[in-house]
Hints:
single chain; globular; 16% strand; 11 helices; Rossmann fold; alpha/beta; 295 residues; 8-stranded mixed sheet
Amino acid sequence: MQIKVNGITLTLEDHGAKTAPAMILIRGLGTQLVHWPDELIHGFVAQGFRTIVFDNRDVGLSARLDEANTPSEADDILALARAGREIPAAYSLTDMAEDVIGLMDHLELESAHIFGISMGGAIAQILALNHPERLLSATLVMTTCRPLLERGAIAELLPKLLAREPASLEAAQTALIAEYGVWGSPGYPADDTYIRAQAQAAYKRGGPQAAGLNRQLIATLNAPDRRAALQNLHLPCCVIHGLQDSLIPPEHGAELAAHIPNSVYHPVEGMGHIITPRLAPEIVQLVSEFVRKLA
C-alpha cells in the first residue's frame, strides 16, 4: 500500500486485525520493511497487535529525495566531515517522525505502540517527546540518546556507515552477509541463505541506493542530544539492547533507560545490532509482556 503523508509517498504493509491495538515498527538506517523477519511481524500479530511496517523516506518503495540539493555521495560527505565543516541535511529525524504521525493520521489511528530500532529508535524517541499523546508506549531497541558521532569518532565510524552503490545483486548479497558478520547477533545467527534472500528482496524493491542511505545518515548525524529532554518524558518505555552490539555499545542502552523515568530495561545476551529470525521470538515476548503490564 502506498500513501501520501507529510508531502511524500510512503509504502507500508498492514498486518493483523484492524481492530487490534496498533504496533508500528520503525526501521533503522538504510533498511527496508523487508528486513523485518517474518517471525517478528507475525509474532506481534499472534500476540494480538495490528502490526504496521513501512519503508522510511529514501529507501525501498517510499519516496526518494534525489532532488534535494545536499551532499549524498560518500566521498563528498567524508571530505566535509574531515574538514570540520557542516554537512547540510535534506531533512531531519524530526521530519521522519512526522512521517509516522502522517501514517497514523492516514490510517485513522488515534494512538499506537511504537517500536523503533537503531535510527528508528531515535525517531521513536522524537515521537515520544513531540507527540506523547499519540503514543501508547515506545520500545527503543539498539539505539542511543546521544549524538551518533560525538567528537573524535568521525574518522573511525563514518566511513563504515557511508554507502556506495553495489555493482550487482551478487555484490549486494555479499555486502549484507558482511554486515551480518560485523553487526549481527552472534548468539542468534542467521544463515547465508536467509541473508541472501533478504538482500535479493531489498534489491528488487530498488535496493540500498547509496544516496538515500547517506541522506538518512546525515539526518541521524544532525539529530540533537536527547538526554536532558528524556528526563521529563512520562510515557511507558521499554529499552532493549544487545550486550554484543558492536555498533552502538550496550552502555548506551543502559544510559537511555536511565534517562527515561520508570522505563523498563532489558539487556540481551547474544544480541548484536540486527534482529534475526532466531532472536525475533525473544523480542516479541519481551515487548508483549511489557505492553500487557500496562493494561
